Amino acid sequence: MTGRVPPLVIAPSRPSGQGRGPDGSLVATTSAKEVVRAWENFASGEDIETGVRPEILASWYRCRDRYDVDRTLEIAPGARGDEAQRTDNGVIYTALGGLGALAGQAVERDGAIVTVTDGDGRVLGTWGDPSAQRRAELHNLAPWSSWSEECTGTNGMGTSLEVSGPVTVTGPEHWCEAFHQWACAGISIRDLVTGAPVASINISRWNASLSKLVPPWLTKAVACVEQEIYRRAVYEADKVLAEFSKKCAQSSGSFMAMDRGGNVIAANEEAIALLGLAGETPIVAGATEPAERWIPDIAGMPEVVRWAKERAQGNAEWSGYARLTVCPGEEAVPLTLRSVVDANHVVGMLCAFGVEDGEAYEGTGDDTFGPLPRCVIGMRDDRLVLLAPSEIRYAEADRNIVWLVTERGRIQAATRGLDNVERLLKPFGFRRVHRRFAANLRRVAEIERGIKGELFLIMDSRAHEFVPVSRRHAPDLRRMLGV
């Protein structure tokens, strides 16, 4: 483990009778009755906007409306027996295990435990006070149990895997009533390439609150582990670039190189012209830095990359092809993906346009996205905002954070990633018009043509609110709007 981990302070003393709900459960604020009342109302089926922190309310919505978690659950279920949690994360788990063991020694005197999970919420190890561990085992808070939100509701481990940054869950903020006397704080470690959670570390305490110093400690502690993730991302990019250079020297045609997450690391001149990447200097030279990589604006590409990575695992000779619409308004073209493998793990893909080779991608229909949400959830200040899709004029991405521009101002979406937000809003008339924008076509007031023929959507003529339309999306947009 690289970097220096700061000292950990849990709490100076045992709890008093303050900060408890009417049932004796812990609460995160002085308004104990308000938190308990919010949980009871929401669990009974009501929609609420106040009485609980926005990140907790967003989690409750996921538990109730998406995952259908039984709030009377008393014991966490066992984790699945598969070994899909990539052995290439072994170095990260080892570093986290060392961190957990050190933290466990620090919290033992305060009656707390430290838990490390993998990216699916499966507990890998626990350390700390033996009596607290025995009490935790009554809820199956022990190795090889599953504490993801999908399985066990709102909790420090599972909820940290759903969001960025440290998360605290205290008393009745837990979705399951059996955990209302626990206080916990967790943080996830995320893959820089895919954005997916790799692991989490969590501190739990029964019948006592946690110090406000715990979340900052978690943030500093995982930064040490994230150095290893960054190092690996750069190493993998170098491997992919080497294969890309070799491929370009041996063959002609349009080629691009992608990392495991489907982000473009490099493209040759033919592919740059095809994709409209002119001027993207890091892509021309090769983007080893994760922040400099390009998200390809090709509908269906994320699903194809996930399929290819899964099929290619452990097979250095694998290749597969799909037919995708690279330029909107034109016919779909074939593209072949070939895996780049290092130490028996897929580290990236080489994409050749206009070629069909290997296994065919059959794909899935748009009806496989699952049930639609009753509302779109946003976050502003200390409130969770419930939005009707018709209120949203457009969505704008700032990397993985999405901002919703609405009648009530600019609001951060609770859902991360523009692809995910567009998927939720597509049935309500939203379409991607740019790699950073998805617009509500029902709210387009005017269309303006730029000096060089580019298009801009004016969503609010009073405010002169412009949304750019990329050249690739212009033909489809004209067809959908009938202009």
UniProtKB/TrEMBL annotation:
Stored Gene3D superfamilies: 3.30.450.40, LytTr DNA-binding domain (2.40.50.1020)
Domain called HTH LytTR-type: residue spans: 381-483
InterPro entries per record: GAF-like_dom_sf, LytR-like, LytTR_DNA-bd_dom
Q: Where is this region: Disordered?
A: 1-25
* Domain of life of the source: Bacteria
- Provide a Gene Ontology MF annotation, just one: DNA binding
Give the record's keywords alphabetically. Answer: DNA-binding
Its name, as the record gives it, is LytTR family transcriptional regulator DNA-binding domain-containing protein
Supply the source organism's classification.
Bacteria, Bacillati, Actinomycetota, Actinomycetes, Pseudonocardiales
